[in-house]
Amino acid sequence: MTELAVLNERFGIQDQLTFSEGSGGLAVVEIANSLAVATVALQGAHLLSWTPHDEQPVIWLSRDAGFEAGQSIRGGVPVCWPWFGPHATHPSYPAHGFVRTIPWQVSDTKTLDDGATFVAFRMIQTDATDVFWPHRSELELAMKVGATLDLDLITRNTGAEAITIGDALHTYFAVRDIRHIAVEGLEGCRYIDKLDSDKRKQQSGPVMFNAETDRIYLDTATDCLINDPGLQRRIRIGKRGSRSTVVWNPWRVKAERMADMGKNGYLNMVCVESTNAADDVVTIAAGDEHHLRVSYQVEPL
Ligand code: TA6
After folding, report:
1. For 3-300, CATH number?
2. Do 159 and 130 form a contact (C-beta atoms < 8 A)?
3. What pLDDT score does 1 carry?
4. Ranges in the chain, pLDDT < 70
5. Residue 92 CB coordination number (10 Å)
6. pTM score over 0.85
């Protein structure tokens, strides 16, 4: 019996959740319920799409995204763990950690009372990953796919020593035109400007976009709102267990240098990432666990 057949037998939900072979031969979970549709690649437990019924797609995925085993996928919700950005001391280590490009296991699926679909994934540590992360820990990502999208990234410290992690749900949101949106919720926050020698600055007013933007907003637990007049909607980004929010758009020149952004793809996306990064990395005591939770919801503008 094939791996997909075993997954469908063990975790499939008739007419709601199936496993199939996606682009590049990557195994994907396809979810369709009375509230929304979504697709998740098992590699990295990487959510690729989420569209509530009667809405435009909320999550952006590059039309030139590569789907190669072991390669990151441009768009969706990449999981960054156990560090965010470049590794602090080993520049040769993969950016944003190692879990977004390795296979994860499915650990649970069920239909919820409100008609949403629950699916959980567990990262599998191996000798190869122990090179990057020689600690005993577990990582799980639980998803609730419905009219809202709820994600819970859970780190369990199963070792005898405290561990310190950076983590992120590096979410790409779909917008009509980056030049005409505003991100609210970060007014007055201090941020690290990754494009200006990591200088620390303070946000004045909503975040608007007219050039490459790459900022780590610090010590902020507030919801963010993406105001998108072009799609006549707002996307509410609620979070818990995250002290940093990263806002990123590569803009034209950098996007053209990236093989997988797609022609002018940068115009239709904005990353608003719920993270624990820089000053806000998280120390987890032995035997303890940490949850990074987000809840995405579309509201009319
Ligand atoms: O979250 C912003 C960022 O750190 C940017 O600096 C840019 O590198 C982006 O992530 C994408 O990173 P990736 O490794 O997915 O190409």
Report:
1. 2.70.98.10
2. no
3. 85
4. none
5. 6
6. yes
